[in-house]
Amino acid sequence: MTRAQIRLLAVACSAVAVVIAAMASLNTALPDIAVDTGATQSQLTWIVDGYTLALAALLLPAGALGDRLGRRGVMIVGLIVFAAASLLPLVADAPLWIIGSRAVAGVGAALVMPSTLSLITAGFAEAHRARVIGIWAGVAGSGAVLGMILSGLVLEYASWRVIFGGSAAIAILLVVLSFTIASSRSTQPLPFDYGGGILVVLAVGLFVLGVMEGPHRGWTDVVTLGSMIAGLAAAAGFVLVELRSKAPLLDVRLFRQRAFGVGAAGLSFQYLAGFGLFFLIVQYLQLVLGYSPLRASLALTPIFLVVMGLSLAVPALLTRVGIRILLSAGLALIGVALILMGLLDADSTYVEVAFALSIAGVGVGICTAPATHAIVTNTPEDQLGVASAVNDATREIGAAIGVAITGSVLAAAYGHGIDPVAPMIPEPARSAVQDSLAAAIQVAEQAGPQGEQLAELAQNAFLDGLQQASWAVAAILLVGAVISAFWAPRRS
């Protein structure tokens, strides 16, 4: 590996780490943001979801732009947009301004993510691609955990605004360093598919919007159902347009290749489980075990270390074992980890938590790189940006679905467990207790001796929801493992 290639790999991996860390880093800061800005629960949700929605919707068009205009240039523009948007919350106090800045940062992130993977894929010979893709996949797979750990450290000693300032500073540094790496683009650039671009933005954006709104509005709500149905209709239109186009944004026939299709599905399963797991475990650590935000973030270290370690070893295994075994075994291990999570209770120790997280880390570590490798190596060189965007979009869609499933199951089970005692709680405390365990604990702390019983009941209701949500996602992952065992080819 030459110095230029090392520099390319370092810049690309750093860039993807920054934009993925930004997805999860604010979760631990939301209580502080609410206090300082007066944001409602709905606004807090959109401070997180606005970024994810913009990112997911624009990935495919952004990847195609990189193929046509140059991947380094598109990445630099994305980093500049991301940095500028991250600076706004340093001076803005209004929640709507913060939501808007996060959405714009998501636009920048959409330009960055596919460019990073396509740059390193084009910048290395085929003999070395499995290794560098594995490193990139390890960074991408553990970026969310890294973001939560760093944000926990920041919040222990400084304001939540430092998280935004730090993200902007790193992005600006990466803009400068990006001028030291080589660019690449399609050798036969085709006209941009505007029709396909509009349809895929609508398809992904509307579907993800519906999935995000489901846990809050209800799955039968007009906005939820309407968004999801409209998104699926736009997706069907996108497929029809792409099949007839002479220069499609995405050649949907690529999904006929078993390796490409199973790689995309595998990543969706992984991120569905991963973000569902984070959603549950952080609340468990803070609300049941009583961890501080910093301690809860540091408690996730096992999964980060295991994923990063395996990202270096798995590429060598891929050539010997093949994608079928690695992908199906990885998904099965993540499923086992979720089953173990469902067994946690108020008396569980951190050793039990770390054991479950480590198993999840092994599962993610052995199947992320093979799935990514299957996508990018089964796509023509001229469409690496689009292939990278497919890789990224499947992750974002899976993550949104994972949080929606776990959030809905947890909310339903918690509500079922707390409803029998709700009539005995006076308003306005009643609605707060019914809303979440965090609110119930706050009410219990102010209720004197009777508060202990309320806190225990609410905690038990939460643990019931944790178990049901964990096992529901575990079942999905185990089904995914079986499908992969039969569908995936032996080699990618």
Automatic annotation (TrEMBL):
Primary localization class, coarse: membrane
Sequence intervals crossing the membrane: 47-66, 73-92, 104-125, 132-154, 160-182, 194-212, 218-241, 262-285, 297-318, 325-344, 350-376, 397-416, 469-488
Membrane topology type: Multi-pass membrane protein
Subcellular location: Cell membrane
GO molecular function, one term: transmembrane transporter activity
Top-level taxon: Bacteria
Residue span, Major facilitator superfamily (MFS) profile domain: 8-492
InterPro entries cross-referenced by the UniProt entry: MFS (IPR011701), MFS_dom (IPR020846), MFS_trans_sf (IPR036259)
UniProt keyword annotations, A-Z: Membrane, Signal, Transmembrane, Transmembrane helix
Pfam family, any one: MFS_1
This protein's GO CC annotations: plasma membrane
Name this polypeptide is given: MFS transporter
